[in-house]
Every structure is written in C-alpha cells, then in structure tokens.
Amino acid sequence: DGGITQSPKYLFRKEGQNVTLSCEQNLNHDAMYWYRQDPGQGLRLIYYSQIVNDFQKGDIAEGYSVSREKKESFPLTVTSAQKNPTAFYLCASQFAGVGEQFFGPGTRLTVL
Amino acid sequence: AQSVTQLGSHVSVSEGALVLLRCNYSSSVPPYLFWYVQYPNQGLQLLLKYTTGATLVKGINGFEAEFKKSETSFHLTKPSAHMSDAAEYFCAVSAGGATNKLIFGTGTLLAVQP
What we know:
The structure holds two protein chains of two kinds.
Chain A: E1 4-7, E2 10-13, E3 19-25, E4 31-37, E5 43-51, E6 54-57, E7 64-66, E8 76-78, E9 87-94, E10 102-103, E11 107-111
Parallel strand pairs in A: 2-11
Antiparallel strand pairs in A: 1-3, 3-8, 4-5, 4-9, 5-6, 7-8, 9-10, 9-11
Chain B: E1 3-7, E2 10-14, E3 19-26, E4 33-38, E5 44-50, E6 56-58, E7 64-68, E8 73-78, E9 87-94, E10 102-104, E11 108-113
Parallel strand pairs in B: 2-11
Antiparallel strand pairs in B: 1-3, 3-8, 4-5, 4-9, 6-7, 7-8, 9-10, 9-11
C-alpha cells in the first residue's frame, strides 16, 4: 500500500532532550512538509523540502531541524531550543507542481 | 500574499440537517483550493479540491463545494449531516509562486447532534 508513515504515534520527552520524529513515504513524491498543530491554531509550517538534499524554513522553524538525504524520508528533530514542543506533528508529501498534500497519521509529542 | 479565513471555529448541526462550512480566500493568482477533514488524533484526509474547470466540486462522503471567484469563497456543504461527519475541517489555498506550499485556515470543528 502506498502512503505516508510517521513514528512513533506517541512520544514523551524530558526537558532538555532532543527527539527525532520519523516520516517516510512510498508515493514517489518530490516535496515533503512538517507541520505543527496546536488547538485552535490550525496547521503551522515548520520546514519543507522540494527536492533531495534541499529544504527551507517555514513559519516556525526555530528550535527544529530536518534533513532530506533520501526522497522517501524527511525526519524532524525537535531540539532543546524549542521552548514549547508539546504538540501534534504532521508530515505531508506532494507531487511536484501545485496539488494536494497527502498526510501521515501524526505524532503526538509531550514534554514531561 | 495568499490567505484563508474560515468563519466559525465551531459549528453545530442536527443529524439530517444541512452542513455549511464557510471559507474565504485571498490570492493574487488563480487559486487552487482544498478542503480536508481531520478526525481526532489522526492526519488530514482530502475531501475535495478545485483546480480549474467546473466550479462545483464533488468530494467524498457526500460533500461538495462551489468556487465563487466574485465572492472569493469556497464554502463546503452537505445536504444531510450524519453523526460520522463530526470532525474538524480545514480549508486551504495554494501559496502560488515557485513553491507548492498550501496555506491552511484555522479549522472549523463540526459537531452533529442526534
């Protein structure tokens, strides 16, 4: 089955720790995105990548980092510099050119 | 710059009643428009999209939306609500320019009363 997978579904982190959220797609999409979702604020773009080995900051990139070494994978690291990391994180992918984005099931990160 | 406004963060309807979720957009280029649905603790699922052509777009689960350029609107409707329609709905517009980004509204939470 083609689709986007995110792991883990739930993640707990202690303050001061870095954590990495996984996002993998087998749709052969060129572009991949990371969003953060908080209640009442919709989706806010963290980082996006339109091609392997290249990525751009979104609206709220501070405290986050990404890599795009393979077309299929776009991991997100939440660093200790992110002051309020507790949120629901969504990964999406898209064919080149304007069109819909396909979303993964999300990872809920909680900082203890 | 492109933007999306969803009027009403919470909408409540009775089962069997009309569902109307409002979306207005701002775009400097011909827009591509999308509606997504999100159930609790899940990702977003595409309901329907407008790119070009027919302005009345039909989607999954009996939903449809009409692109009205003169009103810069793309409202989502369903003639008869079902309990399973209770979810959060997001409208999105293409950002235009050299990127494929989508700009999302803040969402409308739909409650369906028995």
